[in-house]
């Protein structure tokens, strides 16, 4: 049996230390990448709001509750098995056709290419002081069997997400 010299032992220790260092660097790099992705994560949520007197006002709201901007890639309106490539305001004007003209109707258009900054809130559609159309819009946007707005968006790192419907959790697409 051959006796190992101190040079051989030092070589084995050096190789083991190098492999441990390599593993640590790879692991830390992975953690840093995850931290960078999380530090710019957009989180779009939609919900109904009834400010003021009940039945007189209504808003369908979009908010980026994340800590990074959301780049809008697609906006769709789902009604049953049909899908419309449209934003909520255009959909209201073209498809819902409220009973009377909407006098106090207000909206914000969103489309492909729109940037939603972190912490921003957008009132997609709304009516104020309208006891006729406020319940109509609320009924259409509140029920799960009626309208579902789907927004596909990306983070600054190109992660693709989908937010669909009232108070639903965004789902990662890639």
Chain-wise SSE layout:
Blueprint (H helix, E strand, L loop, with lengths): L5 H33 L5 E6 L8 E7 L5 E10 L2 E3 L3 H9 L8 E3 L7 E2 L4 E7 L5 H10 L4 E8 L5 E5 L6 E2 L2
The number of domains is 2
Averaged pLDDT? 86
The parts where pLDDT drops under 50 for at least 5 residues are none
Distance between the termini: 57 Å
SSE succession? HEEEEHEEEHEEE
- Percent helix, as a range, is 25-40%
Specify the structural class.
alpha+beta
* Count of helix runs: 3
The portion of residues forming beta strands comes to 25-35%
Main β-sheet description: 6 strands, antiparallel
> Rg from C-alpha positions?
26 Å
Number of strands: 10
What best-fitting shape do the alpha-carbon axes yield? rod-shaped
List key phrases describing it:
alpha+beta, 30% helix, four-stranded antiparallel beta sheet
Provide a concise account of the structure shown.
The chain is α+β, with helices and mostly antiparallel strands. The chain has helices at 6-38, 88-96, 133-142, and strands spanning 44-49, 58-64, 70-79, 82-84, 105-107, 115-116, 121-127, 147-154, 160-164, 171-172. The protein folds into two domains: 1-38; 44-172, no CATH class.
Describe the structure.
With 174 residues, the chain is of the alpha+beta class. The chain folds into two domains: 38 residues; 129 residues, no CATH class. It is 30% helix and 30% strand. The protein is built from three helices and ten strands. The strands form two sheets. Strands 3, 4, 6, 8, 9 and 10 form a six-stranded antiparallel beta sheet that branches. Strands 1-2-7-5 form a four-stranded antiparallel beta sheet, with helices on one face. The radius of gyration is 26 Å and the shape is rod-shaped. The termini are far apart. 21% of the residues are buried. The mean pLDDT is 86.
């Amino acid at each position: 049996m051959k006796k190992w010299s101190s040079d051989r032992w030092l070589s084995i220790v050096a190789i083991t230390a190098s492999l441990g260092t390599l593993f640590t660097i790879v692991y830390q790099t992975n953690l840093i990448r995850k931290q960078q992705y999380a530090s710019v994560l957009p989180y779009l949520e939609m919900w109904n709001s009834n400010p003021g007197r009940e039945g007189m006002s209504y808003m369908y709201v979009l908010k980026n509750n994340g800590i990074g901007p959301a780049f809008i890639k697609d906006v769709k309106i789902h009604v049953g098995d049909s899908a419309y490539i449209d934003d909520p305001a255009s959909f209201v004007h073209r498809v819902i056709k409220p009973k009377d003209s909407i006098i106090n109707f207000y909206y914000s258009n969103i489309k492909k290419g729109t940037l939603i900054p972190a912490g921003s809130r957008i009132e997609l559609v709304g009516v104020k002081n309208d006891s006729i159309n406020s319940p109509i819009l609320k009924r259409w946007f509140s029920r799960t069997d009626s309208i579902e707005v789907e927004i596909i968006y990306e983070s600054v790192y190109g992660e693709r997400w989908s937010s669909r419907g009232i108070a639903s959790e965004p789902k990662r697409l890639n």
